[in-house]
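Table S2 (continued). Query chain:
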Amino acid sequence: MTNTNYPSATPQTPNQPPKKNGSKNLVIGLLAAGLLGTWGYLLYDKNQSSEKIQTFQTQSTSYMTQRDSLKNMYDDAEMRLDSITSSNNNLHGQLTDRQKDINNLKAQIRSILTKKNATEAELKEAKGLIAQLNDKISGLEADVARLTGENQQLTAANNTLTQEKSDLQQTLQTTTTEKQDLEKTVDVGSTFSASNIQVTPIDDRRNGKEKTTTNAKKVDKLVVSFDVENRIAKSGPADMYIMVTAPDGKVISDPAMGSGTLTTRTDGDKPYTAKVSIQYEQGTQKLVEFPVKQNKFQTGSYKIEIYHNGFKIGEGTRTLKKGGLFG
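Corresponding output:
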């Protein structure tokens, strides 16, 4: 090679390593693009996650709201049912017929509402079951209204019957009192009256003849006689009680004459000498006679009292003397 002063057409480069600026810039650009892409992805992913979280939160809030709403609806239904059954005992019989269906509905509803992860479909089913339960409760409420109306009618009828019963009892009591008063009046009114009362001292002679005497030593018996009569007393047997009181104040008493004790209407219990039974014919006058016998008669006055139906209907006296004079 020869040296020349003319420049060569081919530029001469110094003996240096080749420049790498272009590759470096390319790498930097790629790294920057990757970084930007990563940031963009991260931002996008963050936005997506935020949207998902927001959507989940919204869905969760909606789910809880729906579930709480259904729980409140169910609680209201149970309160209605408890109110109906506790306030109306007459409904228990009818409720027994429907209890199986109602209990089945309540069990299904509780099963869904107690699930922590109940699905939308299950919540929708629970809502429908609550609607069925409310329909049955509405039917019970209608029955309550009907039964209440019937009960009011029965109560009114019962009150009427009670008043009528009270009126009848009052009427019956009045009638019974009037009847008792009437019976008492008839009873008192049917008491006989005695008239023509006579006490005859008799001396029984040995020849069988009787002689009237006032000599106490000769008197064998006192024959008490009187007439009885009553216009309203019915025909039939009647008992007359004769009390003979001796001059010493004691009532003559002898078992042979049927002596005893009589409960009077006004004087309490009194001993009587004899009870004389008669057969009376209504509207007629009946003669009654009875002999009072004693071993020895005292001097003085003998008092004779006649009782019928507990009332004293007449009395008389007879005096016996020491002498042999006839009375």
